[in-house]
């Protein structure tokens, strides 16, 4: 190893979200080139196996070293300058234009490289993803082309024909597309690599314009490139888009060089193109994962605040139920149901980023669930849209998360409403379907068996084939700016798959749309389905002391009242520090600490660590406005009991009773 470039290995701790994305084998190992992730200090934090093979180092030898270990010593000043320019102007995506770059292997040997840089993350979590490609073959081909062209002008005999044959063999052996063209852009040469990449044979393309390969939104770039070639300027390693014979769009990296005759006049151009579609897709996936993480963090914050508000509403209704008359009780029950639905909406929001704690699936009748859902849908859809429920079977038993089923119907109904701006009909159907082995073989994603079919149809504007093919992609939307996130159908797809189901879409322009969802039938589990039981509270606990740490004063007061009504003695703390102060004087009398997870100042998990350190046998119950990844990141032990807000008096008392046993 080059000791002049390496001192002491740095300790690298990349941001968790970025590190998880980079360590994913479906991302790093899918790139055919070497990939090196470098933090802002220029220290290597991750590489793929292609990097090991290309440079001769092991992954353990590289991680923690400065990136200069892979750069020849003579080029390190230029490398420093390029890296500084990139951080100042991140739109500079590719290194190499006007400069020959080289990589340095472990054995000291050097080789020419092309480097593509991508800036990932934000703030302190910024890092640079370097995709390094060995272009030795390309350089050799370019040199061979130059020499062969010189030989073409010097020799007019048998040697000329031999060199032409040799040149053709060299060009045709390349996996990249090598295309010759005259100064008007008419194709004069087409190698096997171009045939493989674009799908056209040489006979189909020679004599046609190079614009044949350009989509309409990139045709304008050709005249500018040809003008530079006429002036003798080489156009190196720019990224663009090309179209194959069958209409597929490819991301390509292109280098175009002038071809000179014996008198030094430019007579044509040679273009070398490489398909980088897979690499671009992976870069997009990295950015996509960051977008999803940002949405998830936003969802977590909203859920926490919203559930705290719902917790206050729920607590008030619990306290009022014990003293309300018959008429007031009805209104209070309506408020309770509204709070439950609000909590369900929060769980739907959390599902966008998988920050929602998985709810145990329950055996339920989809028909009965839809009856309640339709009651909500009708006023939301508007007077000009008719909502029709058509159950074609008496029962439709499935095993699923009821809230997620509501989310599927709501998302599809909202999309249907947008597709019918002048009114129409929304039809919700259920039926039973039996798929045999023959059907399963023809549809490899399905298994034979009995399924419940849920169909949601509209007679709106419909979709064309291109739109229908992309509707389940995250962030894809046909709605105008500000009216759609592109997450609704992606979430529907994820829920269906998570439930072991399948989804198909049928749509044509002006003919409406039908979504058909097939969920495995759970009729065989009817005997084990839990029966609804009346709310039953545990026995009163006189003389038991609870330390309640909650930074929301209203929520803290209401929770205290519910506990005191059940016989508990309650000590209050407005935050973690106040809770420690209470324990410092009254710890002998405290039987259990009930603490919120997220509080100003000292968090719940930090408080619990201090409490357990001083009082190892202390019982603890967490409260949280949301659950999932953020709670785990806060250090909550999975073995600890977690009470999800908003909670009822029954769930509060039962959770504490179980913890105190």
Structure description:
The chain has 661 residues and is an alpha+beta fold. It has 4 domains: 16-134, PAS domain (Beta-Lactamase), CATH 3.30.450.20; 138-275, 2-Layer Sandwich (Beta-Lactamase); 302-357 and 539-661, 3-Layer(aba) Sandwich (Rossmann fold), CATH 3.40.50.2300; 362-528, Heat Shock Protein 90. The protein has 22 helices and 23 strands. Strands 1, 2, 3, 4, 5 and 6 form a 6-stranded antiparallel sheet that branches. Strand 9 (235-243) and strand 10 form a beta hairpin. The longest helix has 45 residues, at 277-321. The chain is extended, with a radius of gyration of 33 Å. Mean pLDDT is 79; it is low at 3-8, 11-16, 352-358, 481-485, 528-534 and 626-634.
Task: Sum this structure up briefly.
This protein is α+β, with helices and mostly antiparallel strands and 661 residues long. Helices cover 41% and strands 23% of the residues.
Name the features.
23 strands, 6-stranded antiparallel beta sheet, alpha+beta, disordered N terminus, 23% strand, Rossmann fold, Beta-Lactamase, 5-stranded antiparallel beta sheet, 661 residues, 4 domains
CATH class of the largest domain: Alpha Beta
**What's the overall average pLDDT, rounded?**
79
Number of helices: 22
- Outline: extended
Beta-strand content bin: 15-25%
Note the topology.
Layout: H1 16-23, H2 25-28, E1 34-39, E2 44-47, H3 49-55, H4 59-62, H5 76-88, E3 94-95, E4 102-104, E5 110-120, E6 127-134, H6 136-154, H7 158-173, E7 177-181, E8 187-190, H8 192-198, H9 202-205, H10 221-230, E9 235-243, E10 249-260, E11 266-275, H11 277-321, H12 326-351, E12 362-365, H13 366-381, E13 385-391, E14 397-400, H14 402-418, E15 424-435, H15 437-442, E16 449-458, H16 465-468, H17 488-498, E17 502-507, E18 513-520, E19 545-549, H18 553-565, E20 569-573, H19 576-586, E21 592-596, H20 604-614, E22 619-624, H21 629-633, E23 641-644, H22 649-660
Parallel strand pairs: 13-15, 19-20, 19-21, 21-22, 22-23
Antiparallel strand pairs: 1-2, 1-6, 3-5, 4-5, 5-6, 7-8, 7-11, 9-10, 10-11, 12-14, 15-16, 16-18, 17-18
Helix pairs in contact: 1-11, 6-7, 11-12, 11-18, 13-14, 14-17, 19-20
């Amino acid at each position: 190893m080059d000791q002049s470039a390496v001192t002491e290995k740095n300790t690298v701790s990349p941001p968790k979200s970025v590190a998880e994305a980079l360590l994913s084998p479906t991302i790093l190992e899918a790139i055919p080139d070497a990939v090196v992730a470098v933090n802002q200090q220029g220290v290597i934090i991750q590489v793929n196996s292609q990097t090991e093979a290309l440079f001769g180092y092991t992954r353990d030898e590289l991680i923690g070293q400065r990136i200069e270990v892979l750069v020849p010593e003579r080029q390190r000043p230029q490398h420093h300058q390029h890296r500084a320019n990139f951080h100042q102007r991140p739109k500079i995506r590719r290194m190499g234009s006007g400069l020959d770059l080289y990589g340095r292997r472990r054995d000291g040997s050097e080789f020419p490289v092309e480097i593509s840089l991508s800036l990932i993350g934000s703030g302190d979590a910024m890092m640079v993803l370097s995709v390094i490609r060995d272009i030795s073959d390309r350089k050799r081909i370019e040199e061979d082309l130059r020499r062969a062209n010189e030989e073409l002008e010097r020799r007019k005999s048998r040697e000329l024909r031999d060199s032409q044959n040799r040149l053709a063999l060299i060009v045709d052996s390349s996996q990249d597309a090598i295309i010759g063209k005259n100064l008007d852009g008419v194709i004069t040469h087409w190698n096997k690599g171009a045939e493989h990449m674009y799908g056209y044979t040489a006979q189909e393309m020679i004599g046609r314009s190079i614009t044949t390969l350009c989509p309409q939104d990139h045709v304008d770039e050709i005249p500018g490139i040809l003008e530079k070639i006429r002036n003798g300027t080489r156009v190196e390693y720019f990224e663009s888009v090309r179209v194959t014979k069958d209409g597929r769009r490819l991301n390509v990296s292109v280098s175009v060089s002038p071809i000179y005759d014996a008198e030094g006049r430019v007579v044509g151009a040679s273009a070398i193109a490489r398909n980088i579609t897979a690499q671009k897709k992976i870069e997009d996936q990295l950015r996509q994962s960051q977008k999803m993480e940002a949405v998830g963090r936003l969802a977590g914050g909203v859920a926490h605040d919203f559930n705290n508000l719902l917790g206050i509403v729920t607590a008030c209704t619990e306290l009022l139920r014990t003293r309300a008359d018959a008429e007031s009780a009805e209104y209070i029950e309506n408020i309770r149901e509204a709070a439950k639905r609000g909590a369900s909406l929060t769980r739907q929001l959390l599902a966008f980023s998988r920050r929602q704690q998985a709810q145990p699936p329950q055996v339920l009748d989809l028909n009965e669930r839809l009856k309640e859902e339709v009651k909500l849908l009708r006023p939301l859809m508007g007077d000009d849209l008719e909502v029709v429920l058509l159950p074609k079977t008496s029962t439709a038993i499935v095993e699923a998360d009821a809230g997620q089923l509501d989310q599927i119907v709501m998302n599809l109904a909202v999309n249907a409403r947008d597709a019918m701006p002048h009114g129409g009909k929304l039809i919700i159907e259920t039926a039973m379907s039996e798929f045999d082995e023959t059907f399963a073989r023809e549809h490899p994603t399905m298994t034979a068996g009995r399924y419940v079919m849920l169909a949601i149809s509209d007679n709106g504007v419909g979709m064309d084939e291109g739109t229908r093919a992309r509707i389940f992609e995250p962030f894809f939307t046909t709605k105008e700016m500000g009216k759609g996130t592109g997450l609704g159908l992606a979430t529907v797809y994820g829920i269906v798959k998570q439930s072991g189901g399948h989804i198909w879409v049928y749509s044509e322009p002006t003919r409406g749309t039908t979504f058909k969802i097939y969920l495995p039938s759970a009729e065989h589990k009817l005997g084990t389905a839990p029966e609804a039981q009346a709310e039953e509270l545990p026995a009163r606990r006189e003389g038991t002391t609870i330390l309640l740490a909650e930074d929301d004063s209203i929520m803290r007061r209401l929770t205290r009242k519910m506990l005191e009504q059940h016989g508990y003695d309650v000590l209050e703390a407005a935050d973690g520090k106040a809770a420690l102060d209470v324990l410092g004087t009254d710890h002998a009398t405290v039987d259990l600490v009930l603490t919120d997870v997220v509080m100003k100042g000292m968090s719940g998990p930090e408080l619990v660590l201090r409490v357990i350190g001083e009082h190892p046998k202390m019982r603890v119950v967490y409260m949280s406005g949301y659950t999932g990844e953020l709670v785990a990141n806060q250090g909550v032990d999975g073995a600890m009991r977690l009470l999800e807000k908003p909670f009822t008096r029954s769930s509060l008392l039962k959770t504490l009773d179980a913890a105190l046993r």
